[in-house]
Specification:
- The protein has 535 residues and is mainly alpha-helical.
- The strands form four sheets. A two-stranded antiparallel ribbon has the order 1-3. The protein has a two-stranded antiparallel sheet with strand order 2-8. A two-stranded antiparallel sheet has the order 4-7.
- It is globular and about 70 Å long.
- The protein starts with 14 loop residues before the first helix and ends in a 14-residue tail after the last helix.
Length: 535
């Protein structure tokens, strides 16, 4: 987890050669990788690096999938006009296609090819194992959003000549995920080949083992509605696997992005952040999220939400912080209500005194909280999987499945909450929450019989802040937080959607296979459920 600085040895210099493979791919999934005369000698380590950077660096995907749809839908950030798609369930199917259209022709084709190139190569066994883990991680985000997807034949047309891949059942995909993570973790050997330029762990093989085993626990828990016994077996096995799971924040899987304002062809800045801070209107914290912090007297209430004196045009990192004045006013800290635009439920004006001693009439947009600037810097880290999440997942598995995973559920819960609070300091200029404040919170909010799963997964909701796909997946898995639907007269749906719809390009170019997948769920609609999301 080293800082990303460009030099002759830094993996960023490999973006250009990795892109050469993409240029050889056609613009649609069905024709990917069919020209054997182009880019046949690309280094698979470069392809791995590209897939890692793409995951959180592609602005088009993060802007449309995360900021416009999933974070508003999961009632964390919203109120801006562009957030209405997710926050008010206004179906814009082109937004739902973006993850698929961008991923299959970029990170998918690269990571699939990297696995193929390294299979059976004696001097690349660690590289092969890491690529296989990255392949699972890449496809997991896709299948969790869409359900049945091309997997076994995806991105392999160069080798198989299959240009219209079948849609594998999500059940089969998950079975393969769990087996791949198990065997790839076992294959990793610190004494063998080095992979020093990869982004996540700079070639630390032991860290990759922990990531693989921990990812296996995350994915196995998705199965609890369908096959609790399999989930139980996989979680116990992953926890006991050689190398273990994440056991401190030093094991966090993070991309440390550069301080670069991404455009739509640059992967170096954090595109989750850029998608927020480039907007002409900043999103507001939704009251559902703010009220969760308030209801438990969470110390993060003092660090995550901020109020800023609004400027026109907005310059997010130059606005004056007026949080303390607003908090002390008769209004106090408020968020925008879910399913509402910022101009609805008007609050203020309130007269406050600015730092220069002058009075200022703060109104509505000034008074409704935004997310602290430190979390949306271009060089903010992207948290893929953290020790905090793993501990909370272990707590969930302990309660839900009766497992003994090194400690009792309360211990895992306490460790997870503490780590989640402390991980805020990973952001540039991020807060360091005092140990005493964390201890007070845990004393006043102990894990209580009968509400354990609610408490654990409400904490996961906070810990996964800014990671829309994981927020969405964990909410569907657990039902927590208990979000109330917030439709308005513009809404396409009166209930919270459960999946993304397949893109038109597939219905035109891979009609038979996509129709078979649609027939299995009955209708290609965002209110249908993926296989593991059983009612």
């Amino acid at each position: 987890m080293t800082d990303m600085k460009i030099n002759n040895n830094h993996p960023m210099r490999y973006i250009i050669p990795a892109l050469l493979l993409l240029l050889s791919a056609c613009s649609r999934f069905g024709d990917l990788n069919t020209d054997p005369t182009k880019s046949s000698k690309i280094n698979p380590e470069n392809q791995l690096i590209f897939a890692q950077l793409w995951f959180s660096g592609d602005l088009s995907t993060q802007e449309r999938t995360n900021s416009i749809v999933l974070m508003p839908m999961m009632q964390q950030l919203g109120a801006a006009y562009y957030a209405r798609v997710g926050g008010m369930y206004i179906k814009d199917i082109t937004r739902l296609w973006v993850m698929w259209e961008n991923s299959y022709q970029n990170d998918v084709v690269n990571i699939v090819d990297a696995v193929e190139r390294t299979n059976g190569v004696a001097g690349q066994t660690n590289l092969n194992a890491i690529c296989r883990i990255m392949k699972v991680y890449t496809f997991a985000r896709l299948t969790d959003l869409y359900g049945d997807i091309p997997y076994s034949q995806a991105g392999s047309a160069f080798y198989t000549q299959v240009k219209r891949p079948v849609y594998d059942l999500q059940q089969d995909i998950y079975n393969n995920f769990l087996e791949e993570l198990k065997t790839a973790s076992a294959q990793l050997d610190p004494a063998k080949d080095k992979v020093p330029n990869e982004i996540f762990y700079k070639g630390d093989i032991n860290a990759w083992k922990k990531f693989a085993n921990s990812l296996r626990i995350r994915l196995a828990l998705r199965l609890v509605k369908r096959d609790a016994e399999k989930a139980k077996k996989e979680i116990q096995d992953a926890f006991n696997a050689a190398g273990g799971v994440m056991n401190s924040s030093a094991d966090n899987c993070i991309t440390k992005h550069m301080d670069i304002q991404n455009n739509y062809s640059d992967l170096r800045g954090n595109s989750v952040s850029v998608a927020i801070n480039q907007q002409s209107a900043m999103p507001k914290i939704v009251s559902t999220f703010l009220d969760q912090l308030k209801s438990t007297n969470d110390p993060r209430l003092n660090y995550i939400p901020r109020c800023y004196k609004q400027n026109i045009p907005l310059k997010p990192f130059e606005r004056e912080d007026i949080t303390a004045q607003v908090k002390a006013s008769v209004i106090g800290l408020v968020g925008s209500k879910p399913g509402k635009y910022v101009y609805e439920d008007w609050v203020g004006p309130v007269t406050i005194k600015l730092a220069n001693g002058t009075n200022y009439s703060a109104v509505n947009g000034d008074l409704k909280c935004e997310i602290n600037n430190c979390f949306i810097r271009n060089n903010a880290p992207f948290l893929h999987l953290t020790y905090a999440e793993v501990e909370l997942l272990l707590a969930d598995a302990s309660v839900r499945l009766g497992l003994t995973l090194g400690a009792d559920a309360a211990t895992h819960y306490n460790k997870g909450v503490e780590a989640a609070m402390k991980q805020l300091s990973l952001y540039p200029g991020g807060p360091v929450i005092p140990d005493a404040e964390i201890a007070d919170f845990l004393t006043n909010n102990p894990l209580q019989a009968g509400t354990e799963l609610k408490q654990i997964n409400n904490q996961l909701w906070i810990a996964l802040m800014l990671n829309g796909p994981e927020l969405f997946a964990n909410w569907r898995r657990t039902g927590y937080p208990q979000l109330l639907p917030t439709p308005n007269n513009e809404s396409t749906s009166t209930t919270i959607p459960r999946r993304f719809q397949y893109p038109l390009s597939e219905k035109e170019q891979n009609k038979v296979n996509v129709q078979a997948a649609i027939d299995r769920i009955g209708e290609d609609d965002w209110l249908k459920r993926v296989w593991w999301d059983k009612e």
